[in-house]
Design a protein that fits this description.
mainly beta, seven-stranded mixed beta sheet
């Protein structure tokens, strides 16, 4: 059974970099059907797609509204997916989720505040 586990810093100060990790068990991040997405949900708002990394080649697609600040990468030896968001602002406060088709992690809350 595929399981996704996000982990993050909890609290990040404005202008700093947010880093979140998704650890995958039960499937390989290089061969899984579809790829791996990062999605977030700000408080009181809907889900926002951040970006995606393809399983086969590691290429990424990123939401144009976040592209200048977003980096998605992976460590195939650890079966992990990474999200980095630079120059964070309070509006980046959200629960950050890792997703593959119908599989979701439990999410990790990240708050941007001084």
């Amino acid at each position: 059974q595929v399981q996704l586990q996000e982990s993050g810093p909890g609290l990040v100060k404005p202008s700093q970099t947010l880093s979140v990790v998704c650890t995958v068990t039960g499937d390989s991040i290089t061969t899984a059907v579809s790829g791996w997405s990062w999605i977030r949900q700000p408080p009181g708002k809907g889900l926002e797609w951040i970006g995606h990394i393809h399983s086969s080649n590691g290429k990424t697609d990123v939401n144009p509204s976040l592209k200048s600040r977003t980096s998605i990468s992976r460590d195939t030896s650890k079966n992990q997916i990474f999200l980095q968001l630079t120059s964070v602002i309070p509006e980046d406060t959200a629960v950050y989720y890792c997703n593959n088709l119908n599989y979701w992690g439990q999410g990790t809350q990240v708050t941007v505040s001084s």
